[in-house]
Amino acid sequence: MKKQLGFLVDADRCIGCFTCAMACKNQYHQENGVIWRQVYPLKEEIYPHKERAFYSLACNHCENPACMNVCPVKAYYKRDEDGLVIHEQDKCIGCGNCIRSCPYGAPQYNPVLKKAEKCSFCHQRIDEGLTPMCVLSCPVDAIGVIDLSTLDTTGLVQYAPGFSRQPVLNPSVRFRLPRLPEVVRRKNI
Amino acid sequence: MDPEQRTRLAQLRDFFLARRAQDLARACTALSGGRTAPEPGSTYWDHAEFAFNKLFVGPVALQAPPYASAYLSTESRLMGEATLTARKIYEMAGLTSPLQGSLPDDHLGVELDAALGLSTMAEGLDAEAPRALWDYFLQAHLLAWIPQFIDKARRAEAGHPAVDLALGHLETWLDHQTIKEEGMTP
Amino acid sequence: MTQWKKTDIEQAMDCPMTRRRFMKWMTAAGVTAAMPCGFLVPGKAEAGIVYEGGYETFRNACPRNCYDTCGVVTYVKDGVIKFVEGAPESTFTRGGLCVKGNAYLRKQYSPDRIKYPMVQQGRGSGNWKRISWDEALTRISEKFIEMNEKDGSMLGLAMTKYSGNFGITNYGVEGMFSSLGYTTRMVGTPCWPAGIDAQNYDMGNMWCNDPEDMVKARYVILWGVNPAWCSVHTMKYIYEARQRGAKIVCIDPVLTQTAAKADEYWQINTSEDGALALGMARHILDKGLVDQDWVTQNAVGFDEFAGYLRSEVTVEWASKKSGIPAERITRVAEEFAAADPATIWIGYGMQRHVNGGASVRSIDALVAMTGNVGKPGGGARYGHLQTWGFNYHAMVQQPPEGAKGYLGPAAKGEFDFTEDSKGPAYANRTLNINKTARELLDATDPPVRALWVSCKNPLSQDFDRNLLIEAFKKMEMVVVVDQFFNQTVEQADIVLPVTTLFEEWTVNASYWHYWLSINEQAVKPLYEAKSNIEIAAALSKKMNELKPGSCTFPADIDTKEWMAKEFNKGVYDLFGIDSWEALKNGPKKARTNRLAWGDGKFGTPSGKYEFKSELCAEHGFNALPEYVASRKPYDKLRLLTPHTKFGLHSQFINLDWMEDFNPRPYVYIHPDTARARSIADGDRVRVKNKTGEVLITASLTDNVPPDAIMMYEAWFKNNPYNCQNLVDDTSADMGAYKAGAPGVAIHDQFADLVKA
Fold first, then answer.
1. Cα A173 to the chain's mean position, in Å?
2. Within chain C, which residues score under 50 in pLDDT?
């Protein structure tokens, strides 16, 4: 299998502190409302304690990206060396196809430039041997960079509960699911 | 730009760089062509000052921040790209702000002062470079944000006739530049 | 002739060479310096500094009241901060910050920052006039001089200051006050004093191990602490401990984020922590699991403590009080006693009760009787001040000659390392910071006439808010030094703009980890902001202009020099450096003092761990860590107002970047409690009690127990929400010994709620 980089989302270690989301903002200064990395609390049907488990999600750098497939001006390309899906904003005409097609909401509309944009995996940092800002900033190492071609998948899943199942796109993200504590509540309150 | 417009520009600069009521009074009197206005020192100007501060200075969250950076991106901030753009343009004209680093270069008052200088250069000298610089500053910068600023200031909760006067003159001055620029090479 | 198009101009802006070519054109065209500009001046064509990688980097440290005190690396270009990162050298922060630290740019460059000294025409009117620093300081000085003449002393001038900025040079505010004479100081701390005193009675100091050694623990109890929100960088050590086989137990009235990550979570009945700890102690005693060797060698009073346990404490009683099933208490007690080492992290929330200090003593006892004090990976962890041995040069100033004050000793705060003055009998008048409203209103002879607020936001954070508003009305002058227009600035007469961490020189330590950080000035202060010591110097100059000899604070200071003056041999030896400049390469770690009580030499009168503390009894408490009853509820439901991950007290939550992720406050209610009041998720509700009321949106969750409701303390921009409307100023038991005043029972509040 060719090298394919992606994010490891360790929802077991994740404490939902939003450092990753803010680190991305700190680096790229996205316009208000344009959020490249969002931290989603799991619904109580999935994790019974409200706002106590999260998936931190950005772009999944799919094997077969919807964004790339619907772009009329080839503003997206998938890097041969590591499978990262790059958006070239200079070529973008702001048609909105990618925004409408991605089931994960990764491409978003920049209302000032009137173009799409999304998580870039900090590929310029990757090329210099550094890690993406979100990965660097996480205080508990709950986000990691993985290479699917060499990954030990023990304990990991591709489709965590609540994460949209898209086998055709084949997202490159992998999850570790959050564990539950043993809860001792007071009785007869 | 005719001499009257140039004078107007200087008066508007003085208005937006005003520190206190007397400065506002002076600038407004000048803007109204020296016509009688409430005496400086009257409470009329105190109220003008309160409104001016609520809109443009603080300490409360600004109702209409007078900086390009606040309008040229949805993230309203100081010291944004627009600040550095303005600074570079000044530099290319051989100008600099004495408060560089403390007062953002894209503050309206500073930009109006720059407009005065750049337009004078452009018109006084028969050369491409200064004309192109003034053209760029006007089209790509001033016109890109000042109309939004005027709109925001007008919709704001705080207000005062003195402020309306200045905004009106600012709008008129801007309109004149647009009319003049129509038909020129972008 | 070349046509200069828009793209050419843009190119010239980006490329120095093209820019030079352009400027040659300008010169050729005849541009002269004689321009009609009234503000801009002729500039020199600078080559511009070429930065490595395009940026100049500086070292800063987050000076907020937080365990983690992160080292920051600041990237500057063209005099503007472009982004920040965590210092990679600190093994504690490891290159990361937190959601708040990453939002610092928004704080630095918010258009809402206070820019100039301003005076409010009519307190609370919202009508502000801009004045110069000179005018501001003149007004203030004239008032101070007038007060001195009227009262014969400066006792009418009060300062309220605490943890808004822990950069060491900010103690210059205290210094400024000392240099004006004898004044009124709000002393004490709302934060952690009961626990500090408790640890002092038991061990002779508040001192915890290096948190990085928690990886060695085989058992970790997180007791009333929520590091997943309040000390994110420590979580990795807890995770590592678990990876190595440790069990993690979390005890908290609320199912916090930390609780969700623990192996076992106990939803304790709030404020019955003492009972629970004593129950565990009784069981450990019964089972013969006491570390008798350690106790014999290192402690006094254990026999009496054992006697107390046998006659007054049973596991069943502890279970009844705490709500935790007896079989859980016994099992965890046995596991804890058997683990080697075992540790308990005691949170500050846990001691914000009328019996807080007593509870901490009980938990300390649990750790001590199992021989876990003085061990790597062990200990009763609370905090430490080992790395705070600075000179406090900014703080130590002399009163002017002839200054009069109070007769008798003054209380000292926990960060006051100055020696007690031996000379004059005069002292400051000290008032309890936790009862600011009441104290300001009651003070007389002379009354408090002027209030100076810095590094604090009393109208957002202090208790009994309605009473505090009354107290403010009594002030003749209120001066507030701050960065944003918060609820306290709203009620100021004069506001003075203060620098952020990026705009001043200072040095920072942590009360949890053992790293030291330098804080360099990275950029020029925006507008007319000044740092606290610059304000002190400027005030002194003005005071002496108007009345020579009225202020001893040096009028001409170099803030970088003043930062350097904080360092001494003790600090250099502890960190193994020759000069503060070594910190420019990153934070440094203390080489020693990181194993609390490792040598068994306790700081108590007996030199031993004191299960029985005579000193504690002398101060009006029990000599043994006996159970003390909790506060009787005065309303239907307990009200908890802990911290949120999105802010640090009243800082950060007002930033729009933060609003993206945390747009509004909620009150968290158990579904049963809500149903009984016909409240649905998302409803607007009115929370009320004897102190005041709050209108807020409901969020239903069983993270809170049915008998408690919770809202986070926070200041949202353009939102009058303030939980302090509901919090009275009832004292915690301890705190007067080491922190100047008792703490405050923040979590011993009660309320009820109805649908709005």
1. 7
2. 1-2, 47-52
